[in-house]
Amino acid sequence: ETGVTQTPRHLVMGMTNKKSLKCEQHLGHNAMYWYKQSAKKPLELMFVYSLEERVENNSVPSRFSPECPNSSHLFLHLHTLQPEDSALYLCASSQAREPLHFGNGTRLTVT
Amino acid sequence: QKEVEQNSGPLSVPEGAIASLNCTYSDRGSQSFFWYRQYSGKSPELIMSIYSNGDKEDGRFTAQLNKASQYVSLLIRDSQPSDSATYLCAVNKGASGTYKYIFGTGTRLKVLA
Predict the structure, then answer these.
(1) pLDDT along chain B (113 residues), means of 10
(2) What is the 3-state secondary structure of chain A?
(3) Short-list B29, B46, B25, CA closest to B103
(4) How far is Cα of residue B69 from the mean position of the Cα atoms in its chain?
(5) Which end of chain A is more exposed for a tag (fewer CB within 10 A), N or C?
(6) What digits encode the pLDDT tens for the residues A49-106?
C-alpha cells in the first residue's frame, strides 16, 4: 500500500457509541494530522503528532481522543459525540513544512 | 481577519480559458504555500507547492507568490470541465507553527463546456 490510508470510509454512530478512526501512512513522514471538514467551513486542524508526540491540539472537545502509537499509525477515538460532529474527518501526513498528503477521509454521521 | 482568505465563488470560466484563483494570508512568517484540488465528496489532492517569491509552473498550472503583499494565486490555463472542483489554498505558518497548516474556505471553480 502507498500513501495514506484511512478506515472506515463511512461511519454512522449513535450519540452513546464508542468508535475509532484509523489512519496509516506509508510515506515515511514524521508528522500526522487529524482535520475536520464541515460544510461551508475551512478544514479545521484538530491534532498534530510529530514523532509520536502531540504538538498541536486545537481546543478540541474531549469526546475526541487521539492516539499515535508510532510514526506510521494514528487513531481518533470517538465517544458520546453530538450530531454537530457529523463531518468528513481527514487524516494527513507530512514532513515539516512540506505538503500535506491526505487519506480518503471518513464520512462520519452521528444520529 | 481570517488567517487565509479565498473568494468562495463559484468562479465560472468557459472551456479553454484561463482560470485565476486568489488567496491572501495574514501571517508574515508563513513560509510554505500550497494549492489543493478537492472534488465533491473526495479528499484534497495537492496540485502545487511554492516556497519563494515569483512564479512556478507545472503543466497547465502556474502558482504565483508575493510575500510582500501576502498573496498567492493559481492560474489554470486551457481550463477543462474536469478542472471543475473546489480549490483550497493552504499556508504553513513556518516559525510560528512548523506543523500548523491553515486552509482557506476554498474557491469553487466551474468550467463550462
Answers:
(1) 89 97 93 95 95 96 96 97 97 77 94 95
(2) CCCEEEECCEEEECCCCEEEEEEEECCCCCEEEEEEECCCCCCEEEEEEECCEEEEECCCCCCEEEEEEECCEEEEEEECCCHHHCEEEEEEEECCCCCCEECCCEEEEEC
(3) B25
(4) 15
(5) N
(6) 987 777 777 789 999 999 999 999 999 999 999 999 999 999 999 987 889 999 999 9
Say if residues A45 and A92 touch (Cβ distance below 8 Å): no
Question: Measured in Å, how far apart are chain B's first and last C-alpha atoms?
Answer: 36
User: Nearest-CA distance from A21 to chain B in Å?
Assistant: 16
CB-based contact (8 Å) between B109 and chain A? no
Residue B21 is predicted with a pLDDT of 97
Radius of gyration of chain A (CA): 13
